[in-house]
Amino acid sequence: MFDNICKFLAETYSTDIASWLLGEPIPLTQVQPQELAVEPIRADSLILLEAESLLLHLEFQTKPDPQIPFRELDYWVRGKRRFPDKKIRQFVIYLKETSSNLVFQQEFQDDNTYHRFEVIRLWEQPVTKFLEYVGMLPFAILVGESNKETLLQDIALRIDQIPEEDTRETISAATYVLAGLVLDENIIKQILRRDIMEESVTYQAILREGELKGLKKGREEGEVQGRKQALLTIILRLLTRKFGNLPPKMHTRIARLQIPRLESLAEAILDFESVADLELWFSKKK
Fold first, then answer.
1. Helical pair 2-12 and 165-179, crossing angle rounded to 10 deg
2. Rounded to two decimals, what is the model's pTM?
3. Domain that holds residue 224
4. Listing from the earlier edge strand, what are the strands of the sheet with 47-50?
5. Shortest CA distance to 135 belongs to which of 20, 13, 8, 5?
6. CA-closest candidate to residue 60, choices 125, 7, 123, 115
């Protein structure tokens, strides 16, 4: 799920990503991983964005992986074969703090072969840039601020100031998910409940009904519905970005899924190449 969120944010707000990583708001377009595939490629972790003279390769990681250095070399070779005239910059971005030495590896070396890439550990980054760009707000909770609750409150205030409702809800949902890496879910709900759930008519109805039957029960049901709404927001945005507007019947089928199946669908989306794959997923996942 975290891979999907990061991939979606990087591709949707690529100019903000470029401003952060490259120091200038370069317009970037998505490159399909299949364009580099000689053999099967880990498309779930691979983010490729291109400009006129640049290929930007990003990988977001929640856990250390000893295979990263060789994989970066492998992807660089594939990218150079496909785009020989482009400069290639590679970033491995670690999301969650760890004491593992693997997150400090930024080169591959074997006999006479040497390859270097760039590594960013978000917990070592200053918060300023992340609060400056809309597309970076969900990542801000992962940077090196000691008081995460206060930071999340600041992020929530900035999300409130986003004028476009669709963007506001999307950034809220993404922040809700990524905050789960560093904060207890109850704390996230207390701070982001208004940002994620108040827009949900269903949530409000459940909450009102719950107040009649018992305030605690109603809040629990409302929080579940809010969690589902956050998942739906991300999933529908991912599918719309990949395939354009979906048929209304497909929207309805997805909205009827329960949280465990929504989480399963979120993981499967990046392997889909057409709407037919989504139909096939529904037929197999009974």
1. 150
2. 0.68
3. 128-274
4. 29-30, 47-50, 54-61, 87-94, 118-121
5. 13
6. 7
Give me the residue label for tokens 């999301």.
95
Per-residue pLDDT tens for 18-45?
Answer: 999 999 888 888 887 666 765 555 555 6
Report residue 131 CA to chain centroid gap. 17
pLDDT digits (tens, 9 = 90+) for 96-127: 999 899 999 999 999 899 999 999 999 999 99
Cα separation values, 266 from 2, 233, 286, Å? 10, 11, 16
Last residue of a domain, one of 124, 155, 179: 124
Burial of 192 (C-beta count, 10 Å sphere; 0-12/13-18/19+): buried
User: Which of 18, 56, 27 minimizes the C-alpha distance to 133?
Assistant: 18
- In the block, residue with structure tokens 């990583």: 21
Residue 137 and residue 262 share a domain: yes
